From TrEMBL:
Residues 8-256 form the ABC transporter domain. InterPro entries: AAA+_ATPase, ABC_Ni/Peptide_Import, ABC_transporter-like_ATP-bd, ABC_transporter-like_CS, Oligopep_ABC_C, P-loop_NTPase. One of its GO terms (cellular component) is plasma membrane. Pfam families: ABC_tran, oligo_HPY. GO terms for biological process: peptide transport. It is found in: Cell membrane. Keywords: ATP-binding, Cell membrane, Membrane, Nucleotide-binding, Transport. PROSITE patterns: ABC_TRANSPORTER_1 (PS00211), ABC_TRANSPORTER_2 (PS50893). It comes from Paenibacillus glucanolyticus. Its main location: membrane. It is a peripheral membrane protein. Belongs to the ABC transporter superfamily. GO terms for molecular function: ATP binding; ATP hydrolysis activity. This is Peptide ABC transporter ATP-binding protein.
Amino acid sequence: MKSELLEVRDLKVAFTSRKASLPALQNISFALREGEVLGIVGESGCGKSLTSLSVMGLLPKGAEVTGGEIVLAGKNLCEFSAEEWCKVRGKQAAMIFQDPMTALNPLVPIGWQIAETAMVHMPVSRKEAHRLALDMMERVGLPRAEQLFREYPHQLSGGMRQRVMIAMALICTPQLLIADEPTTALDVTIQAQILSLLQVMKEETGAAMLFISHDLGVIREISDRVMVMYAGYVVEEAPVKELLNDPKHPYTVGLMKSIPDIEHKDKPLYTIPGRVPSLAERGEGCPFTSRCPHAESLCLTHVPSLTEQTANHFVRCHLYTNPGRDWEGDE
Ligand code: SF4
């Protein structure tokens, strides 16, 4: 049994100003074992990216950790100084962003951007870093590595730029890889190539991965377990097959229904009515109340607890803590 690499315990993040503190992440807890892929799914504004940025110590201005712990390889990152964080980022934990065009430096040849990551985190000479970068470029499927080494980000296609990001992330063989919507900005065929590359690289390096996406279809391709987030809460977590075969939370059920069905092309696409409440709109009860077809008075006033319904399948919904209620087939 592989040991736990990352443990996030009761993490709370809020956007604070002189006038108010608005909670954005509420008691987020999860664990990730070595070599495991945890998919985090939810719409924009659910807290997926904020969760990953917390793990990387890259919270945006105004956001701060207000409670909980982030333990990576036995060390609580929340107690780290800025200098200690710099040693973790790139070396122990690396991140692949959605849009490589904004993540890469437009003025530096891509080969040197990859080599620089190695020089910052490993005791290697410039010549050795150059060799490591070329090797990594070949491993991630970048053609003509010698020539490409000297090219700039704008000279590459979107798919190639994302391969550069993956090479940069993996050159120091991090234990933890965070991929935040890495395929969202790409064409469908390139998406499939990048997903398969991430799978191969994960197998080769043994890295654990947090894979973030708004698309359950993409999540199911790569994840071992899935965590569904809504309005700053974890609302469901289960092994991927279990969650797809037996989604329990009404939000997860809605996400599943929203996946286009290619066998029934004439069927109208399903959408979950309403939208994710903004931070200022979040009230006292279950955050999904305004969009939920099963909401009752209890939901308006009490946030449900995350409870284990079957082995390793956790749900945050009063339907499962209120056993007297018969809701099967209730629409
Ligand atoms: S707690 Fe209530 S509102 Fe929230 S998801 Fe469950 S039934 Fe719907």
